């Protein structure tokens, strides 16, 4: 897969030498360790996978002489038709001391700095995207690191780690430190020969940990990382061992989930009484004052006035006077690609998620681990499936009738609740997939494929839930090809009240639920230079590695921002109309700012779609429970239902922003305080 010309890489190396030698970013030394890195001339590459689908390649070159090591890399991706590139340059001494590192995103003839490091004799300076530069005294052990570090530069980090005697930590700036911990050895077969690789878990680069493999020479062979979406990078020649790397990462992730469970979970009492709180049941707008709720195991067995409920003497009593109980929240568009989501979701009051697209090995292991007693929200799975072509999403494709039936049967056998159809699927194949899935008892969610002649055609084919208002509101233009409507189409294309009435009637007739994901649009319409906390006030609390990549998005021009905001406000006005007509509206985030975007989504429902505070809460509780056939089990606070409960410091019926005041959560019979959960996820626990 060639995305950028390799000869540009060699030219780039030559230019860098001419530019940087006059700046003094080289050193002279002559000990034996230096000699090991002299006269290197190496070229190779890493294959880049997203959801196990090959999307790109990073080519790199290492050259050295008696004075310096220069590592350059060129990374090109075609991710669902979105072509991007990153060029990185790393300068080291012959003892692997870092001197200079730069990473830039390139698009055509233009480039945008992502991260720049300059290590002078007594100090180091870091600049991240449009962050302020940070200059500090140079420590004894350090290495330039950022969340999107190139594989070639990361490989040199591990050589540095080995050269320095495998220190417990290596300092980075401005954020902290990297740790590299040996786990085990894995055997792979490369070119017909067995080879042992050393597996390590690395923290301090992306949110949570990444799993890496080094060969016996210390070269990076593979890495699996997330930072909200799983990617695998595999050294050329080791592609056949991809499954080993996928499985190894799953194993390390579940180990981490076990550690989170030991850290945050206490032994559940057989009987627990929550005393003195107000209760919003989710059934109506009544607030039940000064109540006692008793649960046994997972089930609520009594709710009543505090002075009227008899608490058994053997019950554990928790005083919640001044608090408000609401049903545990749902995120109906999660992509929980790493176990850090587990404590983070629970800390925010989320007790159930629907994962709308993930790698099967990880998704099923994560779901089963939580169901088996490890910390986390209940996980329902919707299996991502796409069609042929470079714009396809993930490795699981339905490109023929046989593949369509096989995919449906595979997901059913693994306990999935739904199949998620993505945009590139051929309509005729989609019909076969939908029919087979429904025979097996699965429902259908996702995108209307772009080749569908109309949004209505996709619904008539049997789709039950639709994601993203930017897609499904094309139903308002019955005489237009969906692909002809370019975003933001609601601003530029008029629709009539008759069109709106017809769409409403059609959606009601076909029992379709809508998941707007407006928080995604709020973020993507930011003006260039805006900071994410201007829209999501809790964003600064997320793990630094996430903050680094999400704080300053690529942004839009002022004119495009104004138009985008106008577009999603029109969309939410329509969503409000659909809601009042009786069409189910459900809350989902598609990530954006992990966990906190669910609060932003619900606030947008209330403020922009003019949904009542109660209906807003119901969009993330009982309505999704009903749609997933689980409303007899959960979704409201009633005797006989599961004790899925978010405990808030303030009543959200008074002010919807009070959803952000979650201080504890109950799920699967366990009571958790939010602060330890947030700390486990490496989030700041409070504002």
Structural class: alpha+beta
The coarse overall form would be globular
- Helix-residue proportion: 25-40%
- Named at the architecture level, the CATH assignment of the largest domain is Alpha-Beta Barrel
Number of strands: 29
Query: How large, in whole angstroms, is the Cα Rg?
Result: 26 Å
Q: Kindly provide the name of the CATH class of the largest domain.
A: Alpha Beta
Which strands sit side by side, in order, in the main sheet? Answer: 8-7-6-5-4-3-2-1-14-13-12-11-10-9
- Taken as a percent bin, the fraction of beta residues is 25-35%
How many separate domains make up the residues?
2
Number of helices: 19
Distance from N terminus to C terminus (CA atoms, Å) equals 46 Å
Low-pLDDT runs: 1-32
- CATH level-4 homologous superfamily of the largest domain: Metal-dependent hydrolases
What does the average pLDDT come to? 90
Question: What is CATH's topology name of the largest domain?
Answer: TIM Barrel
Q: Which sheet architecture does the biggest sheet show?
A: 14 strands, antiparallel
Question: How would you summarize this macromolecular structure in one to three sentences?
Answer:
With 687 residues, the protein is α+β, with helices and mostly antiparallel strands.
Describe the model.
By secondary structure, the chain is an alpha+beta fold. The protein has 2 domains: 7-176 and 218-233, no CATH class; 328-633, TIM Barrel. Helices cover 29% and strands 29% of the residues. It is built from 19 helices and 29 strands. It has a 14-stranded antiparallel β-sheet with strand order 8-7-6-5-4-3-2-1-14-13-12-11-10-9, with helices on both faces. Strands 15, 16, 17, 18, 19, 27, 28 and 29 form an 8-stranded mixed β-sheet that branches. A hairpin with a 3-residue loop joins strand 6 and strand 7. Helix 7 (401-413) packs parallel to helix 8.
